[in-house]
């Protein structure tokens, strides 16, 4: 498709999806879309995830009231990489692959002293995630769907396989995706049940405080085109 026709195609696509468009109007619009779409397919664009410019957190909800006073844990994911493949004008096909280094997860909350954080991080590595045995956490998409919003961003849903602690489960991740210049930005949140991945419940001091099954992931991830 001629690049000059892309904005026209996008506007027509939005009009076709509008609830106020009549059947006759939709027929005319779809005919115009078909005419514009003739020619070479949309180009796929690749983006590399940038951990240094991103924020990726795991919230573990406390289930005890002892030594650490029942505080929730806010665990930062510090080291990850991966790739997004996207067809901006058509949304699909698209894909996401991500690899997280398990030993890069660290406690961040100021309610804990540095000594307490060291204990928490040690048990995260040795008891909870067993990072020597399971050094990576991976996600590979199997299906991406979404719709173009009026502000130019995409409201999407990423389905795929999450492998953590040696266990693979299929999950769905809702995300708002925006493209600005050479950057892609994805924001959203999702939850998983730690017991589905055989992840131990201890949070500190050999089980003195325990966490609940629910783990909440929040992300604001930036990727750069390459």
Counting DSSP H or I runs of 4 or more residues, the number of helices is 3
What general outline do the C-alpha atoms trace?
A: elongated
Measured on Cα atoms, how large is the radius of gyration? Answer: 22 Å
SS class = alpha+beta
Number of discrete domains: 2
Helix content: 10-25%
Low-pLDDT segments, ≥5 res: 1-6
CATH topology (fold) name of the largest domain: Lipocalin
Distance between the termini: 21 Å
CATH class of the largest domain: Mainly Beta
CATH superfamily of the largest domain, please? Answer: Lipid/polyisoprenoid-binding, YceI-like
Query: What share of residues are in beta strands?
Result: over 45%
Average pLDDT number? 82
Q: What's the β-strand tally? A: 11
Largest sheet entry? 8 strands, antiparallel, barrel
Helices and strands, in N-to-C order? HHEEEEEHEEEEEE
Q: Can you give a write-up of this model?
A:
The protein has 226 residues and is of the alpha+beta class. It folds into 2 domains: 3-37, no CATH class; 45-225, Lipocalin (Beta Barrel). The chain is 19% helix and 50% strand. The protein has helices spanning 6-17, 23-37, 114-128, and strands spanning 45-62, 73-77, 80-87, 91-101, 105-107, 136-148, 154-164, 167-180, 183-193, 202-204, 209-225. It has an 8-stranded antiparallel beta barrel with strand order 1-3-4-6-7-8-9-11. β7 and β8 (167-180) form a beta hairpin.
Features:
single chain, 226 residues, alpha+beta, Lipocalin, 8-stranded antiparallel β-barrel, 3 helices, 11 strands, elongated, disordered N terminus
Topology:
Layout: H1 6-17, H2 23-37, E1 45-62, E2 73-77, E3 80-87, E4 91-101, E5 105-107, H3 114-128, E6 136-148, E7 154-164, E8 167-180, E9 183-193, E10 202-204, E11 209-225
Antiparallel strand pairs: 1-2, 1-3, 1-11, 2-5, 3-4, 4-6, 6-7, 7-8, 8-9, 9-11, 10-11
């Amino acid at each position: 498709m001629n690049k000059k026709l892309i904005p026209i195609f996008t506007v027509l696509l939005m009009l076709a999806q509008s609830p106020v468009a009549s059947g006759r109007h939709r027929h005319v619009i779809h005919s115009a879309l078909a005419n514009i779409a003739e020619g070479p397919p949309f180009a796929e664009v690749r983006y590399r995830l940038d951990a240094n410019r991103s924020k990726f957190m795991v919230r573990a909800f406390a289930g005890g009231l002892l030594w650490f006073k029942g505080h929730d844990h806010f665990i930062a994911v510090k080291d990850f990489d991966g790739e997004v493949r996207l067809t901006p004008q058509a949304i699909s096909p698209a894909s996401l692959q991500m690899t997280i280094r398990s030993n890069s997860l660290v406690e961040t909350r100021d309610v804990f002293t540095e000594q307490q954080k060291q204990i928490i991080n040690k048990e995260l590595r040795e008891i909870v995630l067993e990072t020597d045995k399971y050094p990576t956490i991976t996600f590979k998409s199997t299906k991406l769907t979404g719709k173009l919003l009026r502000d130019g961003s995409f409201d999407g849903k990423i389905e795929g396989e999450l492998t953590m602690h040696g266990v693979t489960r299929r999950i769905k991740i809702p995300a708002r995706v925006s493209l600005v210049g050479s950057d892609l930005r994805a924001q959203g949140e999702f939850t998983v049940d730690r017991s589905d991945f055989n992840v131990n419940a201890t949070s500190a001091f050999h089980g003195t405080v325990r966490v609940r099954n629910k783990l909440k992931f929040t992300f604001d991830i930036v990727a750069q085109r390459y």
